[in-house]
Amino acid sequence: MAEELSVAEKYRRKQAQHLLENLLVETNGGKAVLAFWPVTDDTGREGYVPFEEVLENPEYMLQVMESASKELRAWLEKYGPVARHNCDFDDALCEIGNVAKTWLADVVEAARDDGSSSPAEQVQEDQGPPAC
Fold it and tell me: What is the pTM of this model?
């Protein structure tokens, strides 16, 4: 019986994780963004925090940006060989940079509800992608 509860509990946790990973909310600008983001707090505990908390916490913002960087690297490893043979790879990378820049600008805009500088804005100013 205890094993059945354990399996049921694991299933419920998996359902909750799926929901948290796919739930979208609309920002002030009308853009849909993930409502909750996976982060690790300062005690090492992993979990999900609301979008607004990511914007307010420089450490969480850094974690999200590092995750985005890892995902881009994975994309490049997966699709890079195909892209190099079937299209102008530099143009493809440029387009990815433009999409990333637009996304980051949207994050900054969403964070500007009180006119203050956000961690995302600081990242954009310091490390924005090169212009194409």
Answer: 0.58
